[in-house]
From TrEMBL:
Residues 17-342 form the Enoyl reductase (ER) domain. InterPro entries: ADH-like_N (IPR013154), ER (IPR020843), GroES-like_sf (IPR011032), NAD(P)-bd_dom_sf (IPR036291), Trans-enoyl_RdTase-like (IPR047122). This is Zinc-type alcohol dehydrogenase-like protein-like protein. The lineage of its organism: Eukaryota, Fungi, Dikarya, Ascomycota, Pezizomycotina. Signal peptide: none annotated. Keywords: Oxidoreductase. It comes from Hapsidospora chrysogenum (strain ATCC 11550 / CBS 779.69 / DSM 880 / IAM 14645 / JCM 23072 / IMI 49137) (Acremonium chrysogenum). One of its GO terms (molecular function) is oxidoreductase activity, acting on NAD(P)H. Belongs to the zinc-containing alcohol dehydrogenase family.
Amino acid sequence: MTTQHGLIIEKPGAPFKVVDSLERPTPGSKQALVKSLFVAINPVEEYMSKTGAITTEMPAVLGSDFCGLVVQDGPGCNKLQTGDYVFGLCRLGRNQFSPFQETFLVDEDLVFRKDGRIEPEAAAGVGLGVLTSALGIVVGGKKPLPHHGMKIAEHDEWIVVLGGSGTVGHYAVQIARLCGYKVAASCSPRKSESVLQRGANATFNNRSPVTDQAAEIKAITDGHFSLIFDTSALCHGVAREAFKHSTAAEKYFSTTDTVTEFQTGSDVNEYRVITSLLGREDVRSRHVTAEVAKMVPLLEAHIADGTITPVEYELHAGVGWEILAKAIAQYEAGKVEKKLVVRVQEG
């Protein structure tokens, strides 16, 4: 058995620990083995490490977003070959697929091949945000994502993005615009300009009371919206009030909230974005996996051309697994304002 270095937790709540005894995985059908180069830190790592949720075994290798180099392609792997750079979101909570180790597995249909203008450091922070946004808008909101190069006439309709300044909001605004919709996004007043620069047509204050936000949505859209996407997982109350003013025959609410019980209206189609289902085997997970596989080629082309741009990031100083452990501690202490990316190995 070939072993390798990586970062693990031995049990929920335990500190991260560097080890050299992890089994090097072997790619199966339509899979590739990837050398981890850059990883980005997201809230899901803290959630998994503190609670053990999503993980399938202990000790656990964690991670979510990555950019790496294909070092071995498995049987039937046609899209990827040795030497390709890839990025995306791993199968969360599955040790062999997690990027906090020297090499890990990817499914060729579920990752992006790096091409075009995006740098590997920036690519490392794309996967979770762009797939969450695409699931919320394209799948949950029934808004078709156009092929790269298609000219889409702007609809006389809005998409409302609750939480427009975060990572998911960053991609949600861009995807909504690509789909041909105007965007009204909530954010703090100090972040309004940056949200408008990334493509939103209008912003409103997410610090205002629920009824005031609903009134602002009505004033901006005149009720011409069918989809509200709550990227923050906190704003179903705003959505419930806002939908009272919607003129749409079919209404859709997508949210990153995976646990809270809520009701946005008897006539509203509700969809929870659960990226942790990616690559799992139950019926709901297979649906999510199939939808992601359909969207990956479209998103990949937009990212390569720059019609979807990466979120701003901060590259942590240093290289290695001990550096990653320090970066995670810095992230959990709230000392990071941008997407935090760590180089774990040299290319």
